[in-house]
Amino acid sequence: MADPTTENLGVHPSEAEGVAREPLVLNNRSLGWVTDRICGIVENRQPALWWVLFVPSVALFGCLLFTLVYLVSTGVGVWGNNQPVAWGWAIVNFVFWIGIGHAGTLISAILFLTRQKWRTSVNRASEAMTLFAVMCAGIFPGFHVGRFWMVWFLAPVPNANAIWQNFKSPLLWDVFAVSTYFTVSVIFWYIGLIPDLATLRDRAKGKLAKGLYGFFALGWRGANRHWRHYEMGYLLLAALSTPLVLSVHSVVSFDFATSVVPGWHTTIFPPYFVAGAIFGGFAMVLTLMLPVRKIYGLEDLFTMKHVDFMTKIILLTGTIVGYAYIMELFIAYYGANKYEADAFHIRILSGPYKYYYYCMFACNVIIPQFFWFKKCRQNLWIVFIIVNFVNAGMWFERFVIIPTSVARDFLPGQWGIYNASWVEKLMFLGTFGMFMMLFLLFIRFLPVIAISEVKGVLPDSDPHHPEWEALRKKRRAANKNA
Amino acid sequence: MSDSTTSSKELFGYVAEFESAADLYHAAEKVRDAGFKKWDVHTPYPVHGIDHAMGLGKSWLSAVVLAGGVAGSFTALFLQFFTQVSLYPTVVQNKPTNLFTIPAFFPVTFELTILFAAFSTLFGLLVFIQLPRWNHPLFESELFKKFSDDGFILVIESRDPRFKRDKTKSFLEEIGAGEIEAVVV
Predict the structure, then answer these.
(1) Contact A233 B110 (CB under 8 A)
(2) Same domain for B153 and B120
(3) Cβ of B131 and A226 within 8 Å?
(4) Contact B47 A173 (CB under 8 A)
(5) How large is the average pLDDT for residues A107-131?
(6) Into how many domains does chain B fold?
(7) Which runs of consecutive H residues, i.e. helices, occur in A408-449?
(8) Reported confidence tier of residue A7, pLDDT bands at 50, 70, 90
């Protein structure tokens, strides 16, 4: 290993050259170091950059509140959508945000079930990102129903009309899918937080901080008679979240796929949407975590290995998405359905929104191909630029799917063009403000990396293999002196 | 500290710190073999295999979650069949409302199964581990607080039938404990 500290002390068998995998936590860090470094983010003053980002985020969030008040007080006409394009930016943005959430659940649940231990240093932040993205997503359909104060009609409770919801409608499935997804994500995130909240409680100096962290830590004592149930509960939640996350974007895609609109009515939608969601979500995780890693000095915990894995997942899912784009075109040609063929002709060649398609294809399929090269995966600037192309590309994808299809329906008499109004544009920007604001508050008040989980993957935390204990002892002593 | 107990205060137990996960693991095996019942180890993270070293079996939280999931499925099926088929058949786009509507009812059934199972995980867990409990004698000990940082703590409570004030302390020293603190409440 290149690191001088490890060389002096001998090499841990799990890190030896040849057999070796790069360690998950670099530079022979101790348990105490992990606690100090991660809790330090919460306990110390935030860097100036935090405020530089936080203030505009709050301002944008204010814009969101303003547009919502303006929308409700004036009427739905302030949005640009109308017949034939009733599903404009609101639904585009809903699908965009809900898709971003999927990476968080993939990291926390699917990578947990598949025993990918590197997930421990990214899962907390990406789960937080999931929650905030789903909150942003929920705003759009909530207000898109038109009369926001009637939104409770979506819930299966008896109402004055004595009519129940139509449980055969994909839109109602969506209500159940998204609200279940949010609730389960909150539970998963909170259970994961409990041990770390106890750590913050035990370190807190102020009375208020001690009280609040202590309250939410529920009196956690790290007892093994608790850990064994806790671990089982965590495993079960991962097992529950795995099919859930795959179902959510499938159900979102049913909103389109079960209709008869050409361009929407395709069976490829569920897997295509899920792959796209994971693709876009990983891009957003990297967009958030690369600056966090740099600003707060988390390079030993969130290593280049993590970046490498995540960019590879982006490459894989981006290629699946590219396959889906091309397969859609092929089926439109080969399927001999002239409406479908026409829909795609309009989409990519003759229609008003063809440049959206080109942007989508370039951002999602062509640009991520740079990740085949190790040089690109290891250069953080290149990674950061590419993932932002992906973020934009995924928004274009949803626009290409949603308004393009309804703007050119079966009858030319129904054709129309859709342009978003300033209210919709400001509202979308406002959700970015809300997202950033919540994420910055999360960094400020909660441990951004799962402390107890990272401790569990340190070489020092292994109780077995007595033949390594001498080495572990040497390292602990070196850490104590340092 | 242990000797300064007044008559009004009672010994809760001994808090002992061990140097490493491996030391704690072996100490746990010895405490288990000595026949103690009211004891536990407190660690910053779940130590691999220590359930076995403590003589604990599998956690049956999974049974609670299964029950919750099944309850969720039946709730969803009842909700949908009752409202759509028996109470007020909603015929939309000429789709049937009878037993053959099951495919259309599947997504909501699935989601409620997951939702109920997730809630039973949370509440089942809290019942199993008897939390929240914000006040506990162990929080009086400064040594104990190291569990949430880098301490490997073993606690033997005085209500254990095998607990003896002096003998247990020397037993803990024997099995390799570093610092030992008596907690009084």
Answers:
(1) no
(2) no
(3) yes
(4) no
(5) 92
(6) 2
(7) 422-445
(8) very low
- What's the pLDDT band for A5 if we cut at 50, 70, 90? very low
- What is the per-residue pLDDT for A472? 81
Among all chains, which residue has been given the structure tokens 């290995």?
A305
Same domain? B113 vs B160: no
What is the value of ipTM here, to two decimals? Answer: 0.93
Considering B103, B128, B153, which residue would you say is the last residue of a domain?
B128
pLDDT the model gives residue A15? 59
CATH number for the domain spanning A243: value is: 1.20.1630.10
- Tell me, yes or no, if A480 comes closer than 8 A to chain B by beta carbon: no
Based on the fold, state whether residues B116 and B160 are members of the same structural domain.
no
Domain end (from B128, B154, B170): B128
If one counts the domains in chain A, the total is 1
Range of the domain at A200: 4-459
Q: Which of the residues A176, A210, A468, A473 would you substitute to probe the B interface, choosing the one with the greatest number of B C-beta atoms within 10 Å? A: A176
- Is the CB of B183 inside 8 Å of chain A's CB atoms? no
- A470 neighbourhood in chain B, CB within 8 Å: none
Residue B136 has its nearest CB partner, among A219, A227, A251, at A219
Which range (A10-19, A360-369, B109-118) has the least confidence? Answer: A10-19
Residue B114's domain comprises: 61-128
Tokens read off for A13: 């068998």
A94 CB burial (10 A radius; 0-12, 13-18, 19+): buried
* Interchain CB distance below 8 Å, A172 and B108: yes
For residue A441, CA distances in Å to A41, A138, A290 come to: 12, 20, 17
Q: Where are the alpha helices (DSSP H) in A27-88?
A: 31-43, 48-74
Domain assignment present for A252: yes
Angle between helical axes of A269-295 and A304-334 (0-180°, round to 10): 160
